[in-house]
Write a structure and sequence with these properties.
- The chain is of the alpha/beta class.
- The chain has helices at about 10-15, 20-30, 75-90, 100-105, 110-125, 140-145, 150-170, 200-215, and strands at about 1-10, 35-40, 45-50, 55, 70, 95-100, 130-135, 175.
- The strands form two sheets. Strands 1, 2, 5, 6, 7 and 8 form a six-stranded parallel beta sheet that branches. It has a two-stranded antiparallel ribbon with strand order 3-4.
- It is globular.
């Protein structure tokens, strides 16, 4: 059985009442991938905005494997110390990673964030030398739209992330860089300029699905 682990920040964990892009991708793979698979991770909850804590299980669609390693306000810096144990515990095969916005917004600059991504790879591979990964660059958000220096850091980090993926890609432990959804629009794909609404969930799921299909011939073309 192929084990996928979503790793991310608030866009990946989602909040009460949402489907999440994790569900949208699972739904896609149920029809497009011919083999057995599941989603794994040490966490299952959504973020509860009322309590500002990851304690909600009120998924819009609860009938799917909800395992993940994602958290509201967490980034590469937070996940790197956790990823090794998470991979060992869950026996994950593929990491679906969407990180960076939080790091750049609050903790590290582009170069430091890229170094944390390198450390993340080392920790994951120490736990499973054959781990595969798909990385999503930081996508456009309302802060980047209104804060030119932050937007420049996002652009710089995405360049460094692409270089890091190319440098560390290995036949035994491949790294794919997904493409930012070309039609992503913060006005129509988010509910607050950052977090995905239903349309945005499909956009993010399609980014991972298309990367795996084009890079590894895994699954098929994404269809809503």
């Amino acid at each position: 059985m192929l084990r996928f682990m979503p790793v991310g920040d608030s866009m990946t964990i989602g909040s009460s009442g949402e489907h999440t892009w994790r569900y949208r991708l699972w739904q896609h793979l149920c029809t497009a991938y011919g083999g057995p698979f599941t989603f794994v991770g040490p966490r299952e909850a959504l973020h509860d905005k009322a309590t500002d804590s990851p304690t909600s299980y009120a998924y819009a669609e609860p009938g799917f494997p909800r395992g993940h390693l994602a958290g509201w306000g967490e980034g590469w810096a937070h996940m790197t110390p956790l990823i090794g144990e998470a991979v060992r515990e869950t026996r994950a095969d593929v990491l679906l990673v969407s990180l960076g916005l939080i790091d750049l917004g609050f903790y590290t600059n582009a170069e430091q964030t890229a170094e944390n991504a390198r450390a993340f790879v080392a920790e994951a591979r120490a736990a499973n030398p054959r781990i595969a990964m798909v990385w999503l660059p930081v996508i456009h958000n309302i802060r980047a739209a209104n804060d030119a220096p932050f937007a420049a850091q996002v652009a710089r980090f995405n360049e460094l992330l692409a270089k890091t993926a190319a440098d560390l890609d290995d036949a035994a432990s491949p790294i794919l860089l997904a493409s930012v959804p070309p039609t992503w629009d913060i006005d129509t794909d988010t509910y607050d300029g950052t977090h995905p609404n239903a349309s945005g969930e499909h956009q993010l799921a399609s980014a991972f699905a298309e990367a795996m299909y084009q890079g590894w011939e895994l699954g098929g073309e994404y269809a809503v």
